[in-house]
Amino acid sequence: MEPNNKSHPEEFILLGFADRPWLELPLFIILLITYPMAMMGNIAIILVSKVDPCLHSPMYFFLTNLSFLDMCYTTSIVPQLLCNLGTSKKTISYIGCAVQLYFFHIMGGTECLLLALMSFDRYVAICKPLHYTLIMNQRICILLVATVWMSGMTYAVSEATVTLQLPLCGRNTLDHLLCEIPVLIKTACGEKGANELTLSVVCIFFLAVPLCLILISYACIGHAVFKIKSLEGRKKAFGTCSSHLIVVFLFYGPAISMYLQPPSSISRDQPKFMALFYGVVTPTLNPFIYTLRNKDVKGALGNLMGSVFTCK
Length: 312
What we know:
This protein has 312 residues and is mainly α. The protein has eleven helices and three strands, in the order βαααβαααβααααα. α2 (58-75) packs antiparallel against α10 (270-292), α4 (94-127) runs antiparallel to α6 (138-164) and α9 runs antiparallel to α10. The radius of gyration is 21 Å and the shape is globular. The model is unreliable at 1-5 (pLDDT under 50).
């Protein structure tokens, strides 16, 4: 019996927006602008969280992880997208596709769980303030973040490896901008019902369950916030929580519409726009959402910029 990998092509042709060539130049320019913005914004969040002593708390430790994750997330797809959009060659090697598949889904799976962890942190801070430092101590925070990263890696490695074993019967054309699990399953030949079912079950755990936990956390937070008598206290609680909620809905909305349905039922253009949204738009917007809606981050960023210009 011949191994499946003989049916794998040396490279894939990524069709992208081949049927809409007029979109390629505007998209290339947008990515050329937003990618450096995403990198600089997330690096700024990491720097101020490390440099400013006021931000040495679990909330900003998790935010630093989110910023690092977003940098890796967008880097896993944007450079390759820019190469394909800027040249007539719309291909990616099989090895390049496999690497992108692993990294893209490691970051995606980890972000799902990290956002749930950040909501749990806000729940403890607002609903259990007297026990916050005891529950969210440094050792627990590091352990929780390590668990989140390991879970994301386990999901990506197992799911991507199984997907790469599917026979492609000589097919090397992907109607997408990048290598993504649902699109590869859809392209594969033969029986793939088990793969679709496995992906749906895993995505329920990584998307639906964390989202439910987030919503439950914020229901409890909302109940606790309305009990706060101080108007300033309410504003501060809503300020930190609203930033996180906006990020949650920006990420989970497109991801759920993409992954919680069978790959065979996905429309032609849906994966392309969804991947651009949660792989490019969300990582670019996250630093601005957290900066504009958080006085502590704005203050720390102002102090950092001031010290840089003073040194000069």
